[in-house]
């Protein structure tokens, strides 16, 4: 570990502990450093088994199926929130699965449907996730999922991967019956950690999520593993990273 990173971690740990102990309702200094880091689920959970499962179940159609499923999954969430017809993420996943299947004229069995949807709750952690979380936790930082996943999905993922031993209780947008980028969804982290938004770093998987967190006022770091183009939404992340590994150094560089 570099001298710069070691000094940063000591300093940010002291700031975090000072803000979180000894009278938790005391408002921390807005000008202080990061006190908590919150993660979209797909920044910590490796999503690659999803397209692999789709291709195995639907040979020759896996890529297109995954594209249709993913697009409708998020569109349905946003449309339902706008229309006042909330449905949780597990329900949306089933709806998106049926849509993708019908569009491609596929007729999956009950078992195939269950197998694909259960893949969402059985994703492994990215290889570097434990090491990065261990390093940030050693600094005294608050760490949590902030995800559209349901509480059941997040709890299962945390137990299975062991990430729950390194993190605070997960934050599901189901608590506000909405989805990111609704400001109410991002507010969950500020309330859970009792920190002003300027002291929270948000780690995004999707470019639109990075933009939403930036609009809200979080210091946003985009894990852009696929190297896709940035969204044109009038706000940029503090840093765009190819994986989680550079995150502690990126946080140090933002000091």
In the residues, how many domains can be counted? 2
Summarize the biggest pleated sheet.
Answer: 6 strands, parallel
Distance between the termini: 17 Å
Low-confidence stretches: 1-31
* SSE string: HEHHHHHHEHEHEHEEH
Category from helices, strands and their pairing: alpha/beta
Helix content: 40-55%
- The name of the CATH superfamily of the largest domain reads HAD superfamily/HAD-like
Molecular structure report:
This protein is globular. It has 255 residues and is α/β, with parallel strands linked by helices. Helix 1 packs across helix 11, helix 3 (49-57) packs across helix 4 (62-82) and helix 4 (62-82) packs across helix 5. It has helices at residues 3-20, 41-44, 49-57, 62-82, 89-103, 110-119, 129-138, 151-161, 183-193, 207-216, 247-253, and strands at residues 36-39, 142-147, 171-172, 200-204, 219-223, 239-241. The protein is built from eleven helices and six strands. Strands 3-2-1-4-5-6 form a six-stranded parallel beta sheet, sandwiched between helices. It folds into two domains: 3-45 and 124-253, Rossmann fold, CATH 3.40.50.1000; 49-119, Orthogonal Bundle (DNA polymerase, domain 1).
Features:
255 residues; alpha/beta; Rossmann fold; DNA polymerase, domain 1; 2 domains; 6-stranded parallel sheet; 11 helices; 49% helix; globular; disordered N terminus
């Amino acid at each position: 570990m570099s001298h710069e990173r070691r000094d940063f971690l000591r300093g940010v740990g002291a700031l975090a502990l000072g803000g979180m102990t000894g009278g938790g309702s005391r408002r921390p200094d807005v000008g202080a450093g990061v006190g908590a880091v919150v993660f979209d689920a797909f920044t910590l959970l490796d999503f690659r088994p999803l397209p692999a499962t789709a291709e195995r179940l639907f040979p020759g159609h896996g890529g297109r199926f995954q594209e249709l499923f993913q697009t409708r999954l998020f569109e349905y969430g946003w449309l339902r929130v706008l229309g006042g017809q909330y449905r949780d993420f597990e329900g949306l996943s089933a709806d998106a699965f049926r849509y993708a299947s019908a569009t491609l004229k596929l007729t999956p069995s009950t078992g195939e449907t269950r197998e694909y949807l259960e893949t969402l709750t059985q994703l492994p952690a990215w290889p570097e996730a434990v090491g990065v979380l261990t390093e940030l936790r050693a600094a005294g930082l608050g760490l949590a999922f902030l995800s559209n996943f349901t509480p059941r999905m997040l709890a299962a993922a945390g137990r299975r991967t062991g990430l729950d031993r390194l993190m605070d209780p997960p934050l599901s947008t189901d608590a506000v019956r909405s989805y990111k980028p609704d400001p109410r969804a991002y507010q969950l982290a500020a309330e859970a950690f009792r920190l002003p938004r300027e002291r929270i770093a948000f780690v995004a998987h999707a470019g639109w999520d990075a933009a939403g967190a930036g609009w809200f006022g979080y210091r946003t770091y985009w894990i852009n593993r696929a190297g896709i183009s940035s969204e044109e939404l009038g706000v940029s992340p503090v840093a765009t990273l190819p994986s989680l590994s550079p995150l502690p150094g990126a946080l140090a560089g933002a000091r």
